[in-house]
Amino acid sequence: MWRDIVRQLTPIIGPRGIAALYGRSLYLTSIDIPWIGRPPEGLSETIDLDALHSAFAAQPAVAGAQGGTALLHTFQMLLESMVGGALTERLLQDVLLPSSSGDAAQQDPAT
Amino acid sequence: MTQPVTLTRLPTGVPGLDTVLAGGLPEYSFNLIAGPPGSGKTTLAHQIMFALASPERPALYFTVLGEPALKMLRYQQQFEFFDAAAINSSIRFINLSDEAIGGDLDLVLRRIVEEVTAAGPALVFVDSFRSVMLASAAEGTATNQLQAFVQQLGVQMTSWQATTFLIGEYFSETEANPVFTVADGIIWLRQSVQRNSMVRKLEIMKMRGQATMPGLHTFRITAAGIKVFASAQYIVDSTSSEVALPRLSMGVPKLDEMLGGGLPNGHSLLVAGPSGSGKSILAASFLAEGARRGEHGVIASFEQQPTRRRNPLLAALVASAPVSLVDPGLLDLSIDEILLLLMDEIERTGARRVVIDSLSGLELGLAPTFRDDFRESLARLVFALSSGGVTVLVTSELEDRYTDLRFSPYGTAFMTDAIIVQRYIEVDSRLRRMMAIVKVRGSAHSDELREYAIVDGQIVIGERLEAEEGLLGGRPTRRRSLPRSGGGGREGITDA
Lengths: 111, 496
Fold this sequence. Notes:
The structure holds two protein chains of two kinds.
Chain A: H1 2-32, H2 49-57, H3 61-83, H4 85-91, H5 93-96, H6 103-106
Chain B: E1 9-10, H1 17-20, E2 25-26, E3 30-34, H2 41-52, E4 59-63, H3 69-76, E5 91-95, H4 97-101, H5 105-119, E6 123-127, H6 129-138, H7 143-159, E7 163-168, H8 178-182, E8 185-194, E9 197-207, E10 217-222, E11 225-229, E12 247-248, H9 255-258, E13 263-264, E14 268-273, H10 279-292, E15 297-301, H11 307-310, H12 312-319, E16 323-326, H13 335-349, E17 353-357, H14 359-365, H15 368-371, H16 374-387, E18 391-397, E19 418-427, E20 430-440, E21 450-455, E22 458-464, E23 468-469, E24 477-478
Parallel strand pairs in B: 3-7, 3-8, 4-5, 4-6, 6-7, 14-18, 14-19, 15-16, 15-17, 17-18
Antiparallel strand pairs in B: 1-2, 8-9, 9-10, 10-11, 12-13, 19-20, 20-21, 21-22, 23-24
């Protein structure tokens, strides 16, 4: 899913723009879910999806799913705070709208 | 003989801009939108894009190194023209910061061409082009390389049948910039700051293939986006003065007679007088008389206290709709903006009578930068309205100066067709009012000085003040040969 998000947003806000948003999402999520890891120090130009994958792999399935949902939710909220709900939905529509891999995104954001 | 190619002009969706552009932007043109930071370049580009883009006419918006794309989207969506549903359907944003950051213009060009080739857009925006130039300068790219880049871009975009816009953060107008040569159109945005006032201005410095309106045109940025106020253009009908014009009644008994049968239709009238002399009341009577005859009226009020609150007759007219109130309610106005507001209302209502109350208030509402040219701007306003066929009444504060005989403020006497002057005089230790017709162009009129009073909110004109002389000095003396009372001079006239 994160690869889809990167693919969807990179043409619009550039890899550095996504890396900055992702870093901030990671930081905010890690306050409640420390195992998800902090963003690397300094300027990031890309998203380290391998590190994220490793963090998930080290967790039980339920905790991993919760962490993944929390991170995605934070990212989505962050994007919404910048450009609003309608545009966020528009920018991420192929990723967040119903799809075979979209279970996490379809969950209630409040959960 | 072959016919020249027909240039299709695209409506920009920016109110007033198509008028300045003489019909819109030529399709497939290569345009530059330039100006200092904060002048509205990106907003203008977005407004044009959202107006023009459609599934059949898609747009690509390349963001380079200037404003981060997220921030741009954040702020641009505050405007009413922004349509989130158009994003990723008829409008696509493409970030080129990675290509531009290295300063490799070839890479930037290649990427643009790739995307344009793949998407086949009808509209291409590159924001900001200044970033491309700076990036290339950092790499020591020679000017001719930049020129080659721009020329290549121009050729490519035109060949791909794309109308293109380069948005430039800042350019010096005097700089011999290669972009200026290549561009078909240059739209320059400016900000004029004077004291606490800021006025935005736009100029079409170049637009191949069409005769655009020259000079600077003010514009505003509101929640609806950019609105341009094209400089007032007017055509003086040289034959009109030779034709006997129908007359309009002023709604004040005896005043029509003094004007030689009413105010000629299409004339402009200046009513000048000191504070409290009844200028606004006369203006309201003029509009009320029109309303009585089924003519719609428009009043532009620049008074600090709304005119309708102080003037019951006008309040009733505005409330019952035969008169529209144009209350700009803004500071830093330009004459062109006021004229456009008036013209829109005249067109909407079919009004034949227009009142501007007053010149003094109007001057205070103008941005300081326009006050130096007040007289000239005023002339344009009056001529533009008159040439539109409406009859205009303008009120103006004129302080009584009994040692200095003046009939108009600001040296405006020449610009109106008719002048009524009101003054205070002292008679028998009482402050009385006096009125005279100074001029009615192309018409005989009364040369009498007549006393008048305001009775129940109406002007009541009396007879000629034949018993007094030296009235214009403010302190008339009684003529010895004529009786003071019973002679009709002020008979029946009482102040309210």
